């Protein structure tokens, strides 16, 4: 048998021999039933140890290429090529071919609402979008023209997986007001914060791992974690953010691989994690050696009150992974976000990102770099903060006017959303139906929970719709709520009151 | 105990009870050692079956929250909160935290070459890049200005996960010359073909699955498959493309989940799958019910000969997943590619893409749509085809002039690369060292193989470097090869010639 062995190859010799014999069998040079030489004979001929041949034959057996028979030695296995016609058995069963659990259909209620937002007569308080008419398009043109003159074709070619270096430098300066001092080597540019979530999940999490999330939490993050097939543990959020006392009790009994939090203007609740809880959360992270993923997407959009340092700013030990995005403050369509984390983790995330999409869009990175370095982003932020504050107040006032009994809502100091608790006598499904009739859309609260929540809520965005639409949207929502309340039906939540045993 | 049960919830009652008791324990309302009521008592109090309580208690035991003791019933487990100081045990061991096998360091030889290409005095024949100086920047400006006027902020906002509808329509028209008739619902826009590969791997493959690839193959695809932790089976490529006879023998014994092929201007070999083998490959796919992933990234770059229909064009049964990209023919930095596949698969891929990065860049999709619909891409393709053909011929001539004994190479009819077999007395590692001294870079062949290949090869790109650089690059490569040959050293490949047993 013509088998070549390269003793300086990184491939073990037994695998080289396996490969050589496999090629001889597959190319037909060793026919069905051909008896391979006894291990000892082949070992001598190739000048290798007998155990090497034994290992090679064992691999070939696993490959289904040879069979061992007592008394007859090792023979090439019969090659039962199916002699059927070239007609296929039928079309491929694609849903069955999808790997088990890899694909989840979206929540039907969310799907209904998304279908609703595509109608042009609907006022959408659903999406987490910035105000379209305030997007700085003229500045975009100017910045891009300057880039094309200065960088030429380079701005349209490939760029490093970690991100354009000048952009990462600008991101470091951008994080200083958050209290973060870091270097470009500790920054990874991502295709939006969604990719950041997915990369962290792919890099740090294995199926079955435990991940702590807030309840409610950002539903896109829940989806990314579910797609990594981890077990989610919810910790409730109150007016001061995540209940770190409950997290502490949980960490005493469980070993999660990650704690995911949105400490500032939490999506969807709008809550801000208090300074005391920030410290508590970090102490828990240090003590239990569990990394904290800080999703800091909204902190640049504060309308009142004093800014708080980010978790990463308070963490000298490098346990915090800081995640952020330009989708809420600039152009969502450019798909740009970033991660700031310790260098060894950035290195690993970059290796994963390379197989995922090579790198994020080069031109987009140069455009946002231009906005950051020229001060155009700061000017834009000042403008939208003023507008969003007014829009928040308009929606708060309009909701108050509706006076739906049992409806309550948050008054956030920043961010994108009001979080509304529904009256007990309103079922989520009935409200979606009446909202469709009234032509208004919102995000049903259940999407933000790990398990079915005990109370029903909805999330209302106040940044996308202009002020008149916010007023009209609140009016339509009020009508839908009242219609839902007036509906003759048994309550959807038959709460069983139990006699106190304790 | 205050436990609420919602009988209309989708959450099973036993999990609701588990959740209620868990919250009572974690919030401290049920202290350590507290004895839970006997199953029968609680079942009666809550008006549920006793087995429901049994199930709830079993879950709580799995959660580590309660312990069962013979004779004492079920008690709240002791809550051993670590009372250590807030000092962490040390920085987190990030590489150890990364999920097992998730991150591979790049091949050291490839890394050396990449480091080399960052030097400005080096002529790079390494990367798979289009000619930078031919990129149509003026047209880009015009197209984008027209979009911003016509679409306004919409071009910078979010867009559907599947891709901008007008862009998908344009892609359908773009595929007609490939023989493909399809509809926008069967098209998914991806962030480059790399994301297409990753999405297919994530959607269809589970760890341990078998995937057939050509040897050599596109190394970025091998990385994407390895990252999905599948087993790769190599089928050799010759001048007519994949050896479908060997694939047939392999399919008789193995059940791969996917066959990955680059049928036209194969990367790196430049081979074109012959019409007979195209038919044979499809027959095998139909007969064995195995999907074929057709990577058709280079077919628009044919410099001579007649175009062949794509595999998808020849497949009436929907077994072929067609993958392509704009990175070789337009702007790589925009990160845009696409998949054309049966509708149920596109639906599943889109659900995965949604958790991965929501959608690809909106502005980029409108820009490429503009190039497609206005005919600007066709005009650009005509221009670069002429230039690349000249560059290919320049590199072929220059290589021939070098007259390095034992060096041989392909003469491709299209695409981006020459594939060169190295002389037997040149070791890959020694050549990289001499090439660095001579200031020329290429792709080492081993990166394109599943296992260490028996022959050494290199891939030379002829589209990025201008003609003078190609001539000078070939000269430097010739010097490096001769220096490598002249080096006094034992041959790196100690091939053991074995006496023929067969």
What's the structural blueprint in terms of helices and strands?
The structure is a homodimer of 502-residue chains.
Chain A: H1 13-26, H2 39-46, H3 50-62, E1 66-69, E2 73-76, H4 94-97, H5 108-117, E3 123-124, H6 137-151, H7 165-175, E4 187-190, H8 192-204, E5 210-215, H9 219-227, E6 231-238, E7 241-242, H10 244-251, E8 258-261, H11 275-288, E9 292-295, E10 320-325, E11 337-340, H12 343-357, H13 362-373, H14 376-402, E12 408-409, E13 417-421, H15 428-438, E14 440-441, E15 443-444, E16 457-461, H16 467-486
Parallel strand pairs in A: 3-14, 5-6, 5-8, 8-9, 9-10
Antiparallel strand pairs in A: 1-2, 4-11, 6-7, 10-11, 12-13, 13-16, 15-16
Helix pairs in contact in A: 1-3, 2-3, 5-15, 6-13, 7-13, 8-9, 8-12, 10-11, 14-16, 15-16
How is this structure best described in words?
The first copy, chain A, is of the alpha/beta class and 502 residues long. Chain A folds into 3 domains: 13-76, Winged helix-like DNA-binding domain superfamily/Winged helix DNA-binding domain (Arc Repressor Mutant, subunit A, Orthogonal Bundle), CATH 1.10.10.10; 108-128 and 379-486, Aspartate Aminotransferase, domain 1 (Alpha-Beta Complex); 136-374, Type I PLP-dependent aspartate aminotransferase-like (Major domain) (Aspartate Aminotransferase, domain 2). In chain A, 41% of the residues lie in helices and 13% in strands. Chain A is elongated and about 95 Å long.
Key attributes of the depicted protein:
homodimer, four-stranded antiparallel sheet, eight-stranded mixed sheet, Arc Repressor Mutant, subunit A, Aspartate Aminotransferase, domain 2, 502 residues, Aspartate Aminotransferase, domain 1, 16 strands, 13% strand, alpha/beta
